[in-house]
Structures are given as structure tokens and as C-alpha cells.
Amino acid sequence: MSSTQVRELIRDDADFRRETERLYVGIFRQSLNKSCSNCWFDAFILLMRTDLNKLNAMKEKRFDLRAGAVLYDVVNHDPAKTVTHHNITDELALYHLRTNPDYIKFFNLYPDNWQELALASSNNAAKPAEVKDNNESDAAPAQTEQPKSTSPVKRTASTKKSTTKKR
Questions:
Q1: What sign does the dihedral 153-148-74-28 (CA atoms) show?
Q2: What is the DSSP letter of 157?
Q3: Structure confidence at residue 27 (pLDDT)
Q4: Which residues contact 142 (CB under 8 A, 6 or more apart)?
Q5: Contact assessment for residue 42 and residue 7, using Cβ atoms and an 8 Å cutoff
Q6: pLDDT one-digit tens code per residue, 89-137
Q7: Cα separations (Å) of 94 from 53, 75, 98?
Q8: Which string of b and e fits 20-32 if b means at least 16 CB within 10 Å?
Q9: What is d(CA 61, CA 110) in angstroms, rounded to the nearest whole number?
Q10: Average pLDDT rounded to a whole number, residues 42-51
């Protein structure tokens, strides 16, 4: 589809605009400037260029940063773990909350049991680094099970649509 065809759809097709807005807001959790035709086009391109697996993960994420917040890796100083509202994943959120629990103040969306999840993620992160002693081959492997989250997700007062507890 050419950019001219996309711009025509944006201009003429209300269903196309409605679906683009629904996807954009649902996935990126940002409002769309409806009076700007370039913003519609940019939103469509962003949706089309993002990997489908990443789109699904972003839509189903349990953690969300407040707009303007940037989390830096203060432990290992790894620039790949720098996180903003746009690139946060549950895995990175748990890493940052595990290494610095005070970062919770920068989140506007998080599950009630975020502390348990962060601790459980540290156990999973340590597993690949463990070295197995060959003399213990007769011993049964340890069974570990992650706690299942049944708690609702918290949204803070800064979130427009609050469906659960306010922070």
C-alpha cells in the first residue's frame, strides 16, 4: 500500500481511522492527535513497522511507565536496559524493580504483587548462571514454580481510565 493510498484512507474512511486509533491507543497507551493528518499517518506506519509479537506483548503488558520517565540500569550500567514508556516490557520492568524497588513510583500500571514477581524473576535470572555439580547427579532436581498472579493490575490516579485501585 502506498503512502498516497494510506493518506486517502485516513482522509475518507472513518472505520480505518477508528481502527487505527483503537490499535494505537491499546498498544502504545497514548492518545492520538486526531486533528493532525500526519499524526494519523505516523500512527499507522508505527503500527505496521512493529513486529506482531512485540505488538501483542506490548498490548498484554502488566507494567507501564509514566510519560517522561526513563529508568537506567544503576547496577550493571547496561545501556540496553534503559527503559522508557515506549519500549518497556514486563521483563525489563521486573529487572528494574528488583534492582531498585523505589522505581515503582515511576509506574502508572503494575500488578498488586509486583514485589513477589520481581523476586521470582531474580530466581529465574540466576538459573542460567548456576553450575551443576556432577557429583549430585543422583539428586532429584529442585522443583520451582512461579507464583501465579490472580491479582488485578493497579492504575494510578494519573491514568485516565482507572479500573482498579488508585495509588
A1: negative
A2: T
A3: 74
A4: none
A5: no
A6: 888 999 999 999 999 999 988 888 999 998 888 766 544 333 334 444 4
A7: 20, 14, 6
A8: beebbeebbbeeb
A9: 9
A10: 84
What are 83's strand-pairing partners? 71
Residues 106, 141: Cα–Cα separation, whole Å: 39
Residues 6+ apart with CB under 8 A from 125: 95
Cell match 493510498: residue? Answer: 5
**Contact call for residues 10 and 18 (beta carbons, < 8 A):** no
Half-sphere exposure of 19 (CA within 13 A, CB side): 8
C-alpha 19: how far from chain center? 21
Residue 55 near residue 62, CB atoms below 8 Å: no
DSSP notation for 57-108: HHHT-S-EEPTT--B--TTT--GGG-B-TTT--HHHHHHHHHH-GGGGGGEE
Instruction: Give the C-alpha separation, 2 to 160, whole Å.
Output: 35
For residue 39, the model assigns a pLDDT of 86
Percent share of the chain, pLDDT over 70: 69
State the CB neighbour count (10 A cutoff) for residue 88: 20
Kindly give the interhelix angle for 52-59 and 14-28, rounded to the nearest 10 degrees. 70
